[in-house]
Design goal:
Distance between the termini: 87 Å
Radius of gyration: 29 Å
Mean pLDDT: 81
Number of strands: 4
Structural class: mainly alpha
Length: 388
């Protein structure tokens, strides 16, 4: 009886030890976590981040965009890297695209303008989202911001100029480019208006929207590639392609007529605008079939990515209401000091143009701006000024 009781006690002690690890082990785990946090803070605190998760988000999204732009800076050499007339060198453009850029005119100017403005503008944009630049290098933030907006407008104009022929130039492509241009430039305009009115939280929201929209081009690359693979695997997708573009892509009349006899009227001069049907097949050795695979899914991929990014940025903004409220209190204080009417709502805010309840300043942990002490009495007196 005593032996069975001892065995039972030993089993219970073992089970207890499993459920409750030794204090030394728990302390060691906590200390390692503390060391990691301390070292991480040494990295993100100097550049202005106060919270680790904000730094992680910035590192992932800004880092991915930075890598994307760096990989494409070589395309500023349009005829050396982007449009290569050498079959042994990989071109940056989809097969056949450079046909429209070889002759002087709108398309050539558009592609130069788009690449020369959007790539440098994207790099400069990343500087705007570094907190230490916004908080301590305000003049740099403003000058760089104006430069980014100028480059963005010019780069978007270039994209609109080439939309008629870019990647097939179908109506789905043209409307996607047009919508994205409106969303991007419109968001930049809203951000500019609100910062002129010292409405900081709305400036933040609209700038985030603008660059979430612009980053469609990154997500779009994956969607375009997998879409081309999908239609090639399914089969049965065709698209009409112009014979002059096919002739340029395949490298001559003989190769073109061998693959596409229907182009004979083009070469005879009977039908200069002759089109033939081309199969969409990414796995083919025929460059026009590869190009057609991308042309077929371009519009679809663009619309899907626009929707994903438009929804994604709104989700992020709704998940960060504390930051929105902190910046609105900051806006209230700055507008009050500037003598603006309706402080806290001098910009385009929901309570000014919508039917929501009128906003009033609220103390957040005893502070409303950059750690300066405030009291409910101060906020009450300022609120009475606001309502007068």
């Amino acid at each position: 009886m005593d032996e069975s009781r001892d065995v039972s006690l030993r089993v219970n002690n073992i089970a207890s030890d499993d459920r409750n690890p030794p204090l030394d082990m728990a302390t060691s785990t906590e200390s390692l976590a503390g060391v990691f946090v301390a070292r991480a803070r040494k990295i993100y605190r100097p550049i202005g981040f106060s919270k680790g998760y904000n730094f992680v988000l910035w590192f992932v999204f800004a880092g991915g965009f930075f890598g994307f732009i760096l990989a494409r800076l070589e395309y500023l050499d349009v005829w050396g890297k982007f449009c290569v007339d050498n079959p042994t060198i990989t071109s940056g453009a989809i097969p056949g695209e450079c046909f429209y850029y070889q002759a002087p005119g709108r398309n050539r100017i558009g592609i130069f303008l788009h690449l020369a403005c959007m790539l440098p503008g994207g790099l400069l944009m990343l500087v705007q989202f570094i907190p230490v630049v916004r908080h301590k290098l305000i003049t740099l933030h403003r000058i760089n911001g104006y430069l980014v907006i100028l480059l963005s407008v010019l780069g978007t104009a270039g994209a609109i100029m080439i939309a008629r022929n870019a990647v097939g130039g179908g109506l789905d492509v043209q409307t996607a480019v047009g919508l994205l241009a409106i969303m991007f430039i419109g968001a930049l305009g809203m951000a500019m208006f609100n910062i002129k009115r010292l409405q900081v939280e709305q400036h933040r929201a609209w700038m985030l929207r603008a660059w979430f929209y612009a980053c469609v081009i990154v997500t779009f690359r994956f969607s375009l590639y997998f879409g081309a693979l999908a239609v090639s695997s399914i089969g049965g997708y065709y698209m009409a392609q112009p014979c002059d573009k096919i002739n340029f892509t395949l490298g001559g009349e003989q190769a073109t007529l061998s693959a596409y006899p229907g182009c004979a009227p083009f070469f005879s001069g009977e039908t200069p605008d002759q089109h033939v049907v081309v199969l969409a097949n990414y796995n083919s050795e025929d460059q026009m079939q590869i190009a057609t695979a991308f042309n077929t899914v371009f519009g679809m991929s663009a619309w899907i990515c626009i929707a994903l990014h438009a929804i994604g940025v709104e989700v992020y903004l709704h998940l960060t209401p504390a930051e929105h409220e902190r910046l609105r209190n900051m806006s209230y204080q700055r507008q009050l000091e500037a003598g603006m009417r309706n402080p806290g709502r001098s910009g385009l805010t929901v309570d000014r143009i919508g039917d929501t309840e009128r906003w009033s300043p609220k103390p957040l942990d005893g502070n409303i701006d950059r750690g300066k002490p405030s009291t409910r009495a101060n906020l009450s007196s300022q609120s009475s000024i606001n309502n007068s």
